[in-house]
Amino acid sequence: MEHLEIERKFLVKTEAFKQQAISQTRIVQGFLNTDPERTVRVRIKGERGFLTVKGASNESGTTRFEWETEISVAEAANLIDLCEAGILEKVRFEVPLGKHMFEVDEFLGENKGLLLAEVELTHEDERFERPDWLGQEVTGQVQYYNSQLSIKPFKEW
Amino acid sequence: MEHLEIERKFLVKTEAFKQQAISQTRIVQGFLNTDPERTVRVRIKGERGFLTVKGASNESGTTRFEWETEISVAEAANLIDLCEAGILEKVRFEVPLGKHMFEVDEFLGENKGLLLAEVELTHEDERFERPDWLGQEVTGQVQYYNSQLSIKPFKEW
Fold first, then answer.
1. Signal sequence span per UniProt (chains A, B) (predicted)?
2. Nearest alpha carbon to residue B147 among B64, B87, B93
């Protein structure tokens, strides 16, 4: 499945989002390529596996080509073994707000202390409700790409 | 689908293999990563698309982890647009010999003049019939990896 992913990304100020979360899922992921122009991600999300390719973002940083296919967890585990150093672990919380779903990632390991929220939009200028816990926008800032967090984790900033 | 790919690779001395070929198929392929430790290949082979990940080879160069999934030609074409420079084009001939199938690639474009034959084996020491047209063995020589031919094509050697 492929589409243009339009999303905005924010820092998170408090853990208040956890009270509004409807799910939390552990994610382990690695990268077969961390180049922002052709990122290749292998992910185990709960009991499911995924392989995802993303292209470069547009100028505003909101839109990237994304192609994803589901694979077995066993296949994903084998592919993660081939990945570059810097396997990421995080817990993803789904937080519904109005007609949008925020995905808030609480990073573990070398990125512990980092909380990032993303909201997927149907077009770049779409309005959305901003919860109190939402912090500064970091859309398009490459250091917050997961691929870059695997190379230069938050603890080293 | 994943497996350990065991194969040996040879130069090809003459075009006599074409008389024995049972099929020929045009292949266009690019790489989302050319690193021999985590090669990510996108291929359009005739009317089918594939995404393939290969790991590092063993010491003798015969064996590599390989994972492959079939994708649509449209998806493959979009992913090829994201690939590193150096899209490869070649015609693949299937040449049966005894109980083995040789795959002979006649490269086009920047690799024109290069002919490479591969034979897939079930174990490293498996014997196989050597046709007259088979030349010097180049198994494990990284410059003959397709990923490396896309970076440093035969015409530049």
1. none
2. B87
Looking at the DSSP bridge assignments, the partners of residue B63 are B6
Tell me the C-alpha distance between A86 and A91, whole Å.
16
Q: DSSP per residue over chain A, as a string?
A: -EEEEEEEEEEE--TTHHHH-SEEEEEEEEEEE--TTEEEEEEEETTEEEEEEEEEE-TTS-EEEEEEEEE-HHHHHHHHHHSPS--EEEEEEEEEETTEEEEEEEE-GGGTT-EEEEEE-SSTT------TTEEEE-TT-GGGSHHHHHHS-GGG-
* Digit-coded pLDDT (tens) for A53-111: 999 999 888 999 999 999 999 999 999 999 998 999 999 999 999 999 999 999 999 99
Nearest to A142 by CA among A68, A57, A67, A84: A57
Q: Report CA Rg, chain B.
A: 15
Pairwise CA distance, residues A73 & A85, whole Å? 19
Nearest partner of B120 among B1, B4, B7, judged by Cα: B7
Handedness of CA B35, B124, A75, B88 (dihedral sign): positive
CB contact under 8 A, A78 and B2: yes
Q: Compare B16 and B59 and report the one with higher pLDDT.
A: B16
Taking the CA of residue A54 and the nearest CA in chain B, the distance in Å comes to 8
CB B12 within 8 A of CB B116: yes
- For residues B143, B145, B149, B150, the Cα torsion angle rounded to the nearest 10 degrees is -140
Tokens of B25: 């198929």
Contact B42, B32 (CB under 8 A): yes
**pTM of the predicted protein model:** 0.91
Query: Under an 8 A CB cutoff, do B83 and A38 touch?
Result: yes
Helix (H, G, I), strand (E, B) or coil at B5: strand
Q: What is the distance between the alpha carbons of residues A90 and A20, in angstroms, rounded to a whole number?
A: 18
User: Considering only CB atoms, which chain B residues are within 8 Å of A33?
Assistant: 32-33, 35, 38, 40
